[in-house]
Amino acid sequence: MTFTSIVLEINLITTINVLILLYILRYYYKYFTRKSRIPSPFPLPIIGNLHQIGLNPAQYAKDNHKKYGDMFEVWVGSKRTVILCHPSLLDQVYVTNSQTKFFPRGAVNHVKLNGLHHGNELEKLLCNQ
């Protein structure tokens, strides 16, 4: 090996280490500055909470329900997933509203498919009868 090849290897290793460090810093910056923080177990970069979930996700959900309450979040890789454990929370998620802490949703308009009515038009038909 020559001196230049050793220097190139050291530069490559240093560059990879710096990139990994930057990814970890970005991951935790996004984690600590996220909107609508919900209680959750602390995730690791790249794998999130997968190391904690293991082979029994149902037991993991039950344990976190006891610890964090009816709503908690789990990180699968770098994706955030909110777990809801009470039916009343589902109503809040699916309400048509753009001013919500959940993702914005619009109203479902009338859709007629194979003679079936869906959405707001169905509600009008049922209320008029």
From TrEMBL:
<dbReference type="GO" id="GO:0016705">
    <property type="term" value="F:oxidoreductase activity, acting on paired donors, with incorporation or reduction of molecular oxygen"/>
</dbReference>
<dbReference type="InterPro" id="IPR036396">
    <property type="entry name" value="Cyt_P450_sf"/>
</dbReference>
<dbReference type="GO" id="GO:0005506">
    <property type="term" value="F:iron ion binding"/>
</dbReference>
<dbReference type="InterPro" id="IPR001128">
    <property type="entry name" value="Cyt_P450"/>
</dbReference>
<protein>
    <submittedName>
        <fullName>p450-domain-containing protein</fullName>
    </submittedName>
</protein>
<keyword id="KW-1133">Transmembrane helix</keyword>
<dbReference type="Pfam" id="PF00067">
    <property type="entry name" value="p450"/>
</dbReference>
<feature type="transmembrane region" description="Helical">
    <location>
        <begin position="6"/>
        <end position="29"/>
    </location>
</feature>
<keyword id="KW-0472">Membrane</keyword>
<dbReference type="GO" id="GO:0004497">
    <property type="term" value="F:monooxygenase activity"/>
</dbReference>
<keyword id="KW-0812">Transmembrane</keyword>
<dbReference type="GO" id="GO:0020037">
    <property type="term" value="F:heme binding"/>
</dbReference>
